[in-house]
Every structure is written in C-alpha cells, then in structure tokens.
Amino acid sequence: MKAVQFASYGAPNVLQLRDVPDPIALAGQILLEVKATTVNHLDLFQRDGSRPVAQLPFTPGLEAAGIILANGHGFQAGERVLTTRALGALGGGGYASKIAAPISHLARIPDSVSFEQAAAAGLAASTAWGSLFTLGKLQAGERVLIWAGSSGVGSAAIQIAKQRGAWVATTTSSHERGEELRKLGADLVLNHRQQDVGQELQKLGGVQLVIELVSSTLQQSLEACAPNGRVVLIGNLGGKESTVDTQSWRLKRISVIGGGQLQASPQEEEQALQLIATKKFVPLIACALPIEQAAEAHALLESGEPQGKIVLLHS
C-alpha cells in the first residue's frame, strides 16, 4: 500500500510517499481502505520534532474516513466508516491508504455524507462535542463564547451549540471571516485584534461557558464569564502560558476545566455526522488536496491562512 511518512524531523519536504506493507487486522480490528484524512496542528508538531514520535519512519493522520474491506465484527464489506483515533490503528495514521482499526473506534458515516465531509468534521466535531457537553455541560438557553471561530473545532462548536439552543459568541481576526461565522450561526462575532473580548461580553452580562482554544487569552475568558461560569481549556493556539487575575477568578467562582486529549465517543460522533446528513452542520473545508501533496498541505496550515480544515484525499 501507499503511505505518506517522515523518516526524519524537519520542514514539510521530509514528508514522502512510500510503498509499505499492508497491515493485517488483529483480534478486535477490521481493515479499512482510507479515502480521506485531514491535516491537524499535531501533524505539524510531530513532523518538526516539537512533539517527538515513538519511532521513525512515522505515518501521521489523526482521522481516517474510508471503506470496510471485509465482513466481521458486525460490519459489512463496503460500509463507510470514520475513526478519529487513526493513530491507534495498525498501518499508521490516516496518511496511509489502508489501516487496521479497532472496531470500538469506528463511527458509521451516513450515505449522504461524503468522505471529505466526514474527515473534515472528524476530530474537530468530536472535540467540539466533548468540550461543549461532556465537560462543558452546555444547556439550552445558556450563553457560550467560542474562541477561534474559523478553526475546525471552533466552526464545529458554533454550529453544534446553536443546534442545542445556545446563544453563541465567537472571535475572529478579520471582517471577511466574521461574515462567514455569522452565516454558520454565531449571534455575536468579536474581532479580537480590535475589541476587548472579555469586556464586550461583560457588558452583555457575561457567558456561562467558554470554549478556550487559544490559552494565552485565558484572562479575557475569565472576564467574559458570568458568576459560576465554566471555562473548558482545550487548545493552546496562542501559546502555553497566560497571566491571570486570580482575584476575579476566585470572586466569580469560575471553574476552569482542563480538556486533556478530549474526544467524544463513536456513538456521539455518529450524532454529529447525522447533523451533517440533515444539513444542520456544515464542516468548514479550506481545500481538498491529493495525499501526494501532503507537504504542500502542511506548508499551507503553517502559513495560518486556511479558514477550515485541509482535507487530504487518497485516490
């Protein structure tokens, strides 16, 4: 089979398409032909060595949408499935054309949802779902602030929160991106370069929940909270450090919850995929490229330009 791998750490050009042995499914696993995956920031960190991997050469790819190749374990050959835990499969991650995935990791893809859409939703929707509901305990009628609305997680969280009856504020860095986020359903879009997000939301009475994807903005998240608010910390797009006023944190009794390696269950992921099938959730896709252009895709994500997910397609 074919797989895009890196055998040394470095720039995007260390990614190479190689011929590698097909994986053989073990007990509790099933063989998939991968049709689509995505590029995530973790892929970049693994490739450049800032998050070293256990062994080289290494096949990245957190998600894999594809086709079951053989009957077994309640699945039929030809069924369309998604795993957001592809790094736990034999054969590598989603940059491989075949993987042997644990059956407990698989979510079925509805017929009307494309592989491209499923992969783009993938881990972003899974993380959004887990942060909003599993940890954030979001209820209908509550107000939520979602940082980095144009990111994969952010754009998914906006739409999923709206489907649950929440009022949604989000952040962006440009007017053009703000218009797109309003189309996704955001009730309020704040330009974090021009506005103080925390103060603006305090004028409206604050929010009950913050989905914090940036980390360096934690103080603004605390300011944005109403008393007894919750902050779910699931990303550090702005860096790993932040200075906060512990007095306001304490007096408002705000709970800050570390998200860890947060994912929804495959059953919850199927619910998110069903929202796509019923056109209640549209995964934001920046572009789709053939897997042979993985290096170009990494360079594009590093540029900071994409709005939405970069999808890689296997032929």
TrEMBL record:
UniProt GO molecular function: NADPH binding; oxidoreductase activity, acting on NAD(P)H
InterPro entries: ADH-like_C, ADH-like_N, ER, GroES-like_sf, NAD(P)-bd_dom_sf
Keyword line: NADP, Oxidoreductase
SMART domains for the chain: PKS_ER
Domain Enoyl reductase (ER): 10-312
Membrane-spanning ranges: none
SUPFAM superfamilies: GroES-like, NAD(P)-binding Rossmann-fold domains
Pfam family, one: ADH_N
Keyword DNA damage: no
Gene3D superfamilies recorded: Medium-chain alcohol dehydrogenases, catalytic domain, NAD(P)-binding Rossmann-like Domain
Keyword check for Oxidoreductase: yes
Protein name: NAD(P)H quinone oxidoreductase
